[in-house]
Amino acid sequence: MDGMERAPELVVTQAALQLGGRPVLRGVDLALQRGELVALLGASGCGKTTLLRSVAGLQGLDGGRIEIGGQDRTQAPPQQRGVGVVFQQYALFPNLSVLENIKFGVLCDGRGQAEATRRATALLDLVGLQAHRDQRPARLSGGQRQRVALARALAREPSLLLMDEPFSALDENFRVPLRRSFRQLQRQIDQTCLIVTHDREEAFELADRVAVMFDGRIAQCAAPAELWRRPASRQVAEFLGAFNLLAADVAPGALLRGGGCWAAPIEALQVVEEGAEALADPATGWTLRARVLASHFGQQRVSVELRSEAGDPLQLWRRHDQAPLAAGQLLTLQVAGPALQHLPQ
Amino acid sequence: MTLGPGLAWATALPLLLLVAAAIGLPFVWRGGAVLWTCVQGLAGGVGAAGSCAAHDLVSDRYYLQALLNTLGLSLASTAIALVLGLGAAIALAGLAPLRRPAMVLVNLGANFAGVPLALALTLLFGSQGILSSLATRVGLPLPVDLQGLGGLLLAYVAFQAPLATLMLMSPVQMLDAALPEAAATLGASPHRYWARVGLPLLLPSLVEVASLLFANAAAAYATPFALSGTAANVLAVRIAALVSGDIFAQPELSSLLALVLFALLVAVIGGARWWAARLRREVA
Amino acid sequence: MSTGVRAGRGLASRLALLLLGLLVLLPPLAVMLYAFSERWDRSLWPEGATLQWLAEVAALPRVRAAVGQTLWLSGVCALLALLLGGTASLLARLAAPRLLALLDALALLPYAIPPVVVAIGALELFVGQWGGWLDLRLVYVAVATPLLFPLMHKTLGAALEQLDVQPLLEAGRTLGASDLHLLRRVLLPLLAPALAAGLLLCWVTAAMEFAIANLLLGGSVEMLQPLLNGLRGVNGHQSAALVVMSLAVVTALGIGVEGWMAWNARRNSW
Questions:
Q1: How far apart are alpha carbons A300 and B260 in whole angstroms?
Q2: What is the ipTM of this complex?
Q3: Staple partner for B81: which of A300, B128, B161, C214, CB 3.0–4.6 Å?
Q4: Is C112 within 8 Å of B94 when comparing Cβ atoms?
Q5: How far apart are CA C121 and CA C115, in angstroms?
Q6: Same domain membership, residue A230 and residue A106
Q7: Using alpha carbons only, what angle is made at residue B54 by residues B53 and B58, rounded to the nearest 5 degrees?
Q8: Which chains reach chain C with 3 or more Cβ–Cβ distances below 8 angstroms?
Q9: Containing domain of residue A56, as a range?
Q10: How many domains are contained in chain A?
């Protein structure tokens, strides 16, 4: 590791924007290193797509700075920002063939037909669409169009690749294999990438870091592992949907707090069998009683809805081969100490 | 009573009969009569050929000139109106709040054709017109002669351009808004986008709209008549003047000219539809 | 400062819009100034704002007669276009694709056989040959109505596309309703605004028509547009005033209809 840090590929500083009187971006800060893939994750209306479009130059900002490749591009038009964009519906040019679509950006740079064809052919190989080079986009499947959009965006060798919900228009069966092959490709060519998505699974599988956005602000930007273990706030924990939240003012013993809640990953909630050993360490763990409301048989596991005596809604995960739990049944449950994390809200 | 084809055809019968009787019958009767005379003339030798109206058409340069004038005016006004209309439709597509009042005005413009337009143009460009007087005061002679083809062209453009705008609003709005954005992120200037993507995608609609504009201009009667009476030498005015004008009537020649006009319009509209369909297939 | 992409709406398109604006606004403006001024022959500007021309022309018995005749005859044409053409168009779109293809072709007919040709043809055949026992006004209505068909056809087409009635019909049928019932209680109420808009549009178009009004009815019944033309030679100011009045009505109707359609579209969608 050399002592000098490389300048980040993208730096967004205090991006602010109001649209129609409503604040859409409230001072967003974000930095991406070269080769990093960051996912902007949030519900609809949180501003993630607007942020992406601002970085692309398709949307102006009221305040803040955008630096791409070390240069201030806040006022620059999209043509001059050195970004490649993959749109949600791909926006392929219907009247041009696959090859011509991919060549489009290279020709705009004035690099000549031969160079453009060479570059486009290389990309066709990369995404595996050589066989379709002369077809029109209308004749391709959704997954094929997505790959053409990707190849087209990469043709100019952009320093930054921006993708707006790139997999959401695809059939469910294709989403997972396509995004995994995309991740491989991205790593292979060391492409810096910012992806907007509302799909938690997708964000966590793809990204080096996930930026969770609410209401125009980034609540937490961290590696997926970090998010699972240490959500920064109750809002993030609720959004991730992978935690049980227990009110801290009714906690036992050392866990009692004036306010806020204790968050624990759902897997950490275990059923204490009748007559079985209690917690290994009763000092830091939490044993509680809850009533079963309903069991939901999902594809991967059984999700059991419970309500604790203190009134907290809880989720318990069980395998399909475990004995089913009847509605109304009262259970004793426990959470180990290390799994608990206090959140102030 | 079910909503089926039987009911539909039965309901349509009065309309079909009306069209056949009111439009089809006179046209076929007159056109057929003229064609029959000409065909007989061709078969019967020199003597009979004289009664075929085509003889008058070809020998008198006046009627050929009318045809040429109609062609020229229709082509020119269509071309100008298409350019103006496309530009205006594109500009309006981006100015959402302005759209409703703009559409009202554009509708007005399209409806203003005929006598009102002739009145307005006389006020502006007539011999005592405001713009004419202004021009003489400034010292620049106004290039528009209301009684000549220049004036007619101006008048045609005045009602063709709003019509073109109206007809192009919907195809322009249907263009995917993400396409120019994608082009921009790929480094394309707006000019390049339009040349390589926008215009090619609009071409089928442009072709169809152009054919309708052409037909509209070729068929225009009120505007040239209101401007110059029967002196306006376009096909539409000639067709009418040959039957109900001041000089003695030549109904056969009128029918022949109507047939020529019909053939021209069918060729233009049919050709345009075929071409547009082909263009659309290429994109699919 | 915003740097958003404006889809290539650069200088050229705005220039086109400006030119269009001039073309559209200058003529009516000139006519309006002429209609409301006492005189305009001495200098570059009109002199003497007045309503006298409007009052005079509104009082002329010739004008009143022409307006009355025009409203009546064009109204009959529009109604006939609705009853004959509108119903055929609706049923064809709902249930008979082959008929629809025929009607689409029929809607192109007025572009190939324009009003002037139709008028002269009618003059020759129905007046020249059979003039004795056919009332001219009947001929006028018979001949003008088919020319209104494209308007009705297109208006209905646009409305049906927007409303997407097939699922409604299917739902109604599975609920046990007869087609007649569906027509009366679902379709026609939903389509009423579009049908009314089509009717008004046809009425206005027929009233503003010149060729047939002049050539067919020229000698016997004076209609509005030929009257306007004739009046130009007698008293230009009065002619201009009449133009302003008729166009004000047409524009007001247009705005009203468009507003009503928009209001209805909002009401029927979610």
A1: 76
A2: 0.89
A3: B161
A4: no
A5: 10
A6: yes
A7: 125
A8: A, B
A9: 10-234
A10: 2
